[in-house]
């Protein structure tokens, strides 16, 4: 699988995932359905950041890395 995400994009996704996890677990701001949506989005962002490949980017032909 070829990467299509740059370092800045990957770091941003990890930061957003961390914020969503903090909102979901440390505060009572998210409850019910919003809690589960935040967990799912955080999981997807974390996996795509570590793998370096975003399926949505592949579909629309977007690449945020310089050497890919």
Shape: elongated
Secondary structure tally, helices: 3
Listing every helix as H and every strand as E from the N terminus to the C terminus, the arrangement reads HHH
Major sheet characteristics: none
Low-confidence stretches: none
Structural class: mainly alpha
Cα-atom radius of gyration: 13 Å
Average pLDDT reading: 92
Distance between the termini: 11 Å
Give a short synopsis of this structure:
This protein is mostly helical.
Structure, described:
The chain has helices spanning 7-25, 33-51, 55-60. It has one domain (7-60). The chain starts with 6 loop residues before the first helix and ends in an 8-residue tail after the last helix. It is an all-alpha fold and 68 residues long. Helix 1 (7-25) runs antiparallel to helix 2. The longest helix is centred in the N-terminal third of the chain and has 19 residues, at 7-25.
List the helices and strands and how they pair.
Blueprint: H1 7-25, H2 33-51, H3 55-60
Helix pairs in contact: 1-2
Short descriptors:
single chain, 68 residues, mainly alpha
């Amino acid at each position: 699988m070829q990467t299509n995400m740059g370092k800045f994009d990957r770091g941003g996704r990890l930061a957003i995932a961390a914020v969503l996890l903090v909102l979901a677990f440390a505060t009572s701001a998210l409850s019910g359905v919003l809690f589960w949506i935040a967990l799912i989005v955080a999981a997807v962002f974390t996996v795509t950041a570590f793998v370096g490949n975003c399926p949505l980017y592949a579909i629309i032909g977007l690449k945020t890395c310089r050497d890919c």
